[in-house]
Specification:
Strand content of chain B: under 5%
Radius of gyration of chain A: 18 Å
Low-confidence stretches of chain A: none
Strand content of chain A: under 5%
Structural class of chain B: mainly alpha
Low-confidence stretches of chain B: 181-186
Largest interface: A-B, 29 and 27 residues
Oligomer: heterodimer
Number of strands of chain A: 0
Distance between the termini of chain A: 25 Å
Number of helices of chain A: 8
Largest sheet of chain B: none
Helix content of chain B: over 70%
Shape of chain A: globular
Order of helices and strands of chain A: HHHHHHHH
Mean pLDDT of chain A: 87
């Protein structure tokens, strides 16, 4: 079997697994809804900056919850089975791409619920959606790798947050800065493009590092 | 006791750095005054911290390539001593900031909230948080080989992410800290020639001292392992 078809079947396996265990997916959606609802009840009418910051914080926590299960739900026996039939790089690549897809979908649901309840202070909503999708991409990539690391330790879920926060901080600051383009903040010419390229370069680096390092985690 | 040349060099350099640091002439600057001498201590701590972290990552890579647990011992010890130097860097920085940045109308701790937003401090905080998480990760895995492997992977991944953040964050936020453009103290024009005479030997001296402390810890860990093997 060549690597491309192996990658495709691994990706298909992830999607199939998700459709068989729909309760976890609905769990994440319910998590989004209740988080946003709590914010809605505790904040009367936030100004644009608070709105933006709170959106990214919810995004961060949703990502931890949505991506965490990708490795934590795999039992030891099943990992051993994958170990015998698949290449680690392709396995990681399939996990990464599946989590990106999942997080992009969760991002749209989050945006929908968040703007429905909290209003829309943005200047250009389309721009904000694009920035949030870029953010979802980066967040899901980082936390997939961290889920792989944390799955080897005890108290996995809380460990993932501890490991992830210092690493994700610069990216989050960049994203919050970039999303201010949607709030009619005036930027220096070409600055937003520079930020986007920087974020994409970071994402590329994360993918490469994950693919290089995962084979070492893989063998037990 | 193994007494090698670099330990002697460390002692000589540090004696020179402390004596010279307090007695040799420094440029007179408004506001900074004599506190400028703290450069020989404060900045050196960060240099030594980054050098120790780098060699920690170096040994993590070596561990993944060869699988020798001695490399893991070195990697984790260098990370621990690097964090210790980082805490010292924070304390010397706090003393310095009390006399230069803090609002003199209020007690010094009241300025903490605004000082902690400094980009250089955020970068340093991220580095320390990463290695704090590294030790929690190590603590939560009981199997020795697996702990070494997982910790090495996290060490490399986090360190590779640390560098862009040190480069990115200063460009996102305004700063009072010297060396706004690029890396502070690495630029030859940043420091007065008289201060360079003391500064570079001091960096070398403190770094060697860091390695010396780490070296003692590594040998101590080896002795513990030997004792565990034959009770």
């Amino acid at each position: 079997m060549n690597s491309y078809s192996q990658y495709l079947s691994l990706l298909k396996k992830e999607i199939l697994l998700e459709s068989r265990q729909q309760h976890t997916l609905y769990g994440v959606i319910l998590y989004i809804a209740s988080t946003v609802f709590v914010i809605y009840l505790t904040m009367e009418s936030p100004d644009a900056e608070t709105w933006n910051t709170l959106f990214w914080i919810t995004q961060l926590f949703i990502c931890i919850n949505a991506v965490a299960k990708s490795f934590l739900q795999e039992s030891r026996g099943r990992m051993l089975y994958y170990y015998t039939i698949a290449s680690p790089t392709l396995f990681m690549l399939a996990k990464l791409s599946y989590n990106v897809l999942l997080m992009l979908a969760m991002n749209l649901i989050n945006l929908l619920i968040y703007t429905a309840l909290m209003g829309d202070p943005t200047f250009s909503y389309g721009l904000f959606v694009l920035v949030s999708l870029l953010g979802a991409l980066g967040l899901s990539l980082v936390f997939t790798m961290l889920a792989a690391i944390a799955s080897k330790a005890m108290q996995q879920a809380s460990l993932m947050a501890i490991l992830g926060f210092p690493i994700i901080l610069p990216q989050l600051l960049l994203l919050i800065r970039l999303s201010k383009t949607a709030f009619s903040e005036v930027f220096r010419n070409g600055a937003p493009l520079q930020l986007i390229l920087l974020l994409l370069a970071l994402d590329l680096m994360i993918v490469l590092l994950s693919l290089i390092l995962y084979p070492f985690l893989w063998k037990d | 006791m193994r007494f090698t040349w670099w330990k002697i060099a460390s002692i000589i350099l540090l004696v020179y750095a402390v004596v010279g640091g307090f007695l040799l002439p420094v440029p007179e600057k408004p506001l900074l005054g004599e506190t400028i001498r703290n450069l020989y201590f404060h900045v050196c701590m960060w240099f030594a911290m980054m050098i120790l972290y780098t060699s920690s990552v170096n040994h993590a890579i070596k561990y993944l390539r060869k699988g020798d647990l001695q490399n893991d011992n070195k990697s984790s010890t260098y990370a621990a001593i690097g964090s210790f130097l980082g805490i010292l860097g924070y304390s010397t920085g706090a003393i310095w900031a009390t006399y230069t940045w803090a609002d003199p109308n209020y007690p010094a701790y009241a300025s903490l909230g605004s000082i902690m937003r400094e980009p250089k401090l955020i970068g340093a905080a991220i580095a320390l948080l990463i290695y704090a998480a590294y030790f929690i990760l190590r603590g939560s895995i009981s199997d020795m080989d697996q702990r070494a492997r997982v910790a090495a992977v996290y060490n490399i991944f986090a360190f590779a992410m640390l560098f862009p953040s040190i480069w990115i964050i200063p460009r996102l936020r305004p700063s009072l800290h010297p060396g706004q453009e690029g890396n502070p103290a690495l630029n030859f024009n940043d420091i007065d020639a008289r201060m360079r005479m003391v500064f570079y030997p001091a960096v070398l001296g403190w770094t060697l001292l860091g390695f010396w402390i780490a070296n003692l810890r590594i040998r101590y860990n080896i002795l513990i392992e030997k004792k565990m093997e034959k009770p």
